[in-house]
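Student: Please help interpret what follows.
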Amino acid sequence: MGGASSMRIVIAGGGSAGWMSAAALCKTFPDWDITIIVGDEPIGVGESTTPHINQYLKYMGIDDADFLKAARATFKAGSKFEDFAGVGHSFFYGNAQELPKGTHYYQWMLADAFKMNPPPFIDVFMPFMTVAAEGKMPLNNPRLAPYDLKKDRSFHIDSHAFAKYLRETFCENIRVIDSKVKSVSYGQGGIQFVTVERGPYDQGAKKVDADLYLDCTGQSSTLGGAMGTWEPITTLNVDTAIVRKEEYTDKDEQMHCYTHAKGLSAGWQWTIPTWDFISKGYVFSSKHQSEEDAKKEFGDGKVIKFRTGRYDKAWSGNCVKIGLSYGFVEPLESTSLFNTHHGILSLIDILATVPDYGQFERDNYNYNLKEHFDGWKEFVEAHYYYSSRKDTPFWRSQTDEMEYDIVGSHEFIRHYMTSDEAFSPDQFHPIVYIMAGAGKNNINQRHYGYFNYPIPISQKNVDDWNEDYQMRKSFAGSLPTMYKYLSETFHAEDS
């Protein structure tokens, strides 16, 4: 069954969500009537992605060479969390599509419970992160198997440069209105038309109408906000960010291939190394720290207020909220761009196959986005849920006072770790990595006698892990830094 033969679509918002939507629609439906109302200039900070960005790049036919140059991007193997689980405590989380064969989560947990001195959890199950933690670029190598640079990575990007690339490469034939939405007229079935402050050919107000509207206006939700109910996240206190760009002083040292998240007194700080600059931001709770005190701790920068939560529906009537317009967890774990491109591609799946979509398709779309959003919310909550910090009012509120929705997943992990049911060593549960990295363990010595684990733990297992770990740390010395690797390959022209 084919999709609609032709549609008129209006996209409101010219940030990442707007241009990613416009580019994908233009590629899929080159003959459709597409208009984008660009609105305000996007902030253009450095942004971290998840590996799922590769789904969008593959769909668009954008290869690594073009993307890295256009988005002024660097590779990201994973994330480092410092002072999250406790002051002075650090752990890593990595991007991986496949785990080492024959290694079971519960074996490490048992070794930890029996105090057998295993290497860090991440270094057993995502061995390439040993290299990344040493400041080197993980490359395809048997010593790091099953790591594959083509699929087991994400990126640090200049979001403004990426949006500009999409506009210039894929969106030549669409109508661009360099203005902001002034008003929205609603009627039966949704939006009747929008009015812009300045028309494309004159200085007066202009009405723009369409069959379908995409709200990419960010947290203002200018189009779709009136067509839904906002449901806040009550477990995440952070609501303000101070952001700035910094120049490199030593690219070899500072351009590491992981996002760095460091806990501060009332939140946490990100460090994202793009090719041209370092993006830094302090995400904090205004309930626990004033802007003035936050700037004393972090330094100056642009202040951005935000709210965490989502609307009850992403698609209502003839309006689809894309990206931040639909919802926002918080910057931790870089989920914003995922929600953006997942929403876009899921919508295109419907438009390309169902010519007469209705409430059934809208309901399925909304369920899909809600499930993904809520899953990411639980993943982010886990970073606080497993923390033991109590040194400031903010961290006490997160670790002692908060009731988390993550409890259900935690109980699943408890069963997952202690059950004698069939267990797949290749099964991946990301929350396990946060739990183990933070020093939490659902297994104790008594469990060993209760359950028939398929493969018992032995000192030889632990010794082999430690030997491999030390081998990889030594091997890292022979590998290039990410700056050296990129300067000789994808960014050779810029070096």
Observations:
- Residues 96-152+406-495 form one domain.
